[in-house]
Write a structure and sequence with these properties.
The complex is a heterodimer. By secondary structure, chain A is α+β, with helices and mostly antiparallel strands. Chain A has a domain of about 200 residues. In chain A, strand 10 and strand 11 form a beta hairpin. Chain B folds into 2 domains: about 80 residues, Orthogonal Bundle (Rna Polymerase Sigma Factor, Chain: A); about 70 residues, Orthogonal Bundle (Arc Repressor Mutant, subunit A). Chain B is an all-alpha fold. In chain B, about 40% of the residues are buried. Classes of the chains: A alpha+beta, B mainly alpha.
């Protein structure tokens, strides 16, 4: 058989094989979907841990680098720790100074006269012969004599200073050290105000896990009231990244302790499909607006002039101002409503903080933390779906 | 129980899967798992290994859903992912490590009439899964995925000549099996 024919024969055969296999389906005897979901969550968890690890490593590099490069303060002199050493003595030869005599002494004398009876009114004039001359020596300009010092004996000491000068320097240094300490203490015991925004995400991975703590389960047939409407969720909601902005006020309590409070605004946006009043299928666009008051305590672990690494623990109470609803039905008709929400949302926060003070009055801070949101039967949102969240607060701090 | 919502179009389903909608992922799995399992069976050494390929393949599909641009068939895009998952495992096992260029076998192709008469569609799959894993891989890539011998050699890390010889061996094996039926 010619090769060409053989080749053609195989092509036809393979075409037939390909045709036969085109729509072949082999049903599975096991459901692999739960395993697939578990693997997906594991991958997202690994990705999140990797990101946190990189952030922590970067922060650690920053801390170590800045500590290493931070300007070193000069050690102050501690008098009590100084060994008993003789003071430095500088001896100089005694310079013999010859008396300088003016070549022409100025003599004040009166012309010779007979001693006359002393009259009270008249001054007594003494002759030259009777009274020895009073020589008044008026020192003229002294010629300068250059005297070379014969020897200088110096006893080794910290700083070439005389004892008095050394003590003065020590005292000055002590004063300066105390002044620095006071200044630093004053610097630390500052009030500060911070402006922050927050990145937040769930730790369990994925944003669509059904949360048994939520008041209503999708597809369960249960519904919840939104004002005068009832909504029965049909799909698991999609929770978008929350937006949080905060203003903080912080003050020092003690050497390394500080506490703070403030005001926080959070916007939680979710989307899902629901059955409206048991009749109409609608797309729901839900936005929750939360206003919260945090309370936190910080403890400084590492600190220098510019950098402060601290541990932080605290909590927050939040109240939903309102829940914005947008319902869109299959004919694209849109209904918008804002309803009030009962109850509050409380949370506990634990984390680390890194603050870099690049100006005397201003600095940058980064606070990664874990936040746990307690169940208070709040409307479905990212926090009810995933109670344990990772937060990253980034902002500016102004030192007052 | 919550029933997955049927999606009006594949685009809608894909968009929902891109948003990590669990019900959409479930729907996609239910729709394509049987077909993709058949693809995995063609490459796997056993049914258990095929299930591993299927699980890993779907995880990759859901993770890389954003990379599907909409051009070309979605099923074809998925199939490539599953084939690549299988090939990655086969490369680890190195099924073709000792593949060498051999003299091309001049095997005569079975007649089409014989194939139509003797084999049903599911029998074709069974026949292929019984083929030794080494030249079966080359046969699958050449016949079902349409790769050239150069592309096969790059994917499997073998020479082009080895790819040709493996295909010939696969054909010879098929011919012998068809004659026995």
């Amino acid at each position: 058989m010619e090769e060409k024919d053989m080749h053609k024969g195989w092509e036809e055969f393979e075409d037939r094989i390909r045709e036969a296999m085109q729509d072949v389906e082999v049903p599975l005897d096991v459901d692999l979907f739960p395993n697939i979901q578990e693997a997906l969550q594991r991958r997202q968890w690994v990705r999140l841990v990797r990101r946190v690890g990189v952030s922590v490593a970067a922060a650690a590099v920053l801390v170590v680098g800045w500590i290493a490069l931070a300007p070193q303060t000069e050690p102050t002199i501690d008098v009590l720790s100084q060994p008993e050493t003789p003071m430095a003595v500088v001896t100089e030869p005694v310079q013999s100074v010859e008396p300088v005599v003016v070549s022409e002494p100025v003599v004040v004398s009166e012309p010779e006269k007979m001693a006359e009876p002393v009259k009270k009114s008249e001054p007594v004039v003494l002759s030259k012969s009777v009274v020895p001359s009073v020589e008044t020596v008026v020192p003229a300009e002294e010629p300068k004599e250059e005297v070379a010092p014969k020897s200088v004996d110096v006893v080794a000491k910290q700083g070439d200073e005389t004892p008095q000068a050394a003590q003065k320097t020590i005292a000055e240094n002590l004063y300066l050290a105390q002044a620095d300490e006071t200044s630093a203490a004053q610097t630390r015991r500052n009030w500060s105000m911070g402006l922050a925004s927050t990145l937040q995400g769930g730790l369990t991975g994925g944003t669509n896990n059904y949360n048994p703590m939520a008041s209503v389960a999708p597809g369960s047939g249960q519904s919840f009231q939104v004002g005068e409407r009832s909504l029965q969720p049909l799909t698991t909601p999609t929770h978008h990244f929350p937006l949080t902005l905060a203003v903080q006020l912080q003050w020092s309590l003690a050497e390394n302790w500080s506490m703070g409070t403030g005001l926080s605004y959070s916007r939680l946006h979710s989307q899902y499909e629901a059955l409206h009043n048991n009749q109409l299928q609608v797309d729901v666009d839900q936005t929750l607006h939360y206003l919260g008051i945090p309370l936190f305590f910080n403890y400084s672990i590492l600190r220098n002039q510019h950098l402060n690494v601290y541990a932080s623990v605290g909590g927050m109470v939040e109240k939903a101002l309102c829940m914005d609803f947008q319902l869109r039905d299959l004919s694209n008709k849109v209904i918008r409503e804002c309803v009030s929400v009962n109850g509050v949302q409380t949370s506990l926060h634990l984390g680390l903080g890194l603050e870099y003070r690049f100006l005397q009055w201003m600095g940058l801070f980064v606070d990664p933390s874990l936040a746990y949101y307690f169940d208070h039967q709040q409307p479905m949102n990212l926090r009810t779906a995933q109670s344990l969240q990772m937060r990253l607060d980034v902002g500016l701090r102004f030192f007052l | 129980m919550f029933a997955p919502k049927p999606y009006k179009s594949e685009t809608e389903l894909i968009d929902a899967c891109k948003k990590h909608n669990r019900s959409a992922q479930r729907y996609l799995y239910d729709k394509y798992s049987a077909r993709m399992y058949a693809v995995c069976l063609k490459y796997a050494r056993s049914a258990e290994v095929a299930k591993d390929y299927l699980q890993d393949g779907f995880v990759t599909v859901f993770t890389r859903m954003d990379s599907y641009s909409g051009e070309g068939s979605f099923e074809g895009w998925m199939r490539k992912i599953f084939v690549n998952v299988a090939l990655m495992d086969l490369r680890k096992v190195d099924v073709l490590g000792d593949a060498k260029d051999v003299t091309e076998l001049r095997a005569e192709a079975p007649r089409i009439d014989d194939v139509s008469a003797k084999l049903e569609n599911k029998d074709v799959l069974r026949l292929i899964t019984e083929m030794p894993i080494g030249f079966r891989t080359v046969f699958n890539l050449s016949v079902f995925e349409g790769y050239s011998h150069q592309e096969i050699s790059e994917k499997l890390g073998i020479s082009e000549g080895a790819s040709r010889s493996q295909l010939c061996r696969a054909r010879g094996w098929l011919q012998q099996r068809m004659q026995k039926l």
